[in-house]
Amino acid sequence: MKKLIKITLLVTEDCNLNCTYCYKPYKDKKHMDLQTAISIIDKELSCEYERGLISFLGGEPFLNYKLIKQVVEYVSDRYQNVTFLAFTNGTLIKVSTAGFFE
Ligand code: SF4
Fold this sequence. Notes:
By secondary structure, the chain is α/β, with parallel strands linked by helices. The protein has three helices and three strands.
């Protein structure tokens, strides 16, 4: 049994900021779709594990909040002991979206 399975989803290549030090200065508007995310998650979580960790990255991941919400709902319905993490610049977090991760 694997102790920890880490999954990193680059949910969008778009960002609402333009930091001079950005590691990825070009901004592509492409978003990951739900089917791609699900196929990665199902493949990775199909084995026995103790804990799962799914990280959402961008660009700014909350530009694709719809997908993040769908993924969290999908995983919560099917898998146990999975924690979620978002690497965000914080500018798009509202009370409603912040509460979703509590
Ligand atoms: S917030 Fe992050 S991804 Fe967006 S421009 Fe700044 S460094 Fe790049």
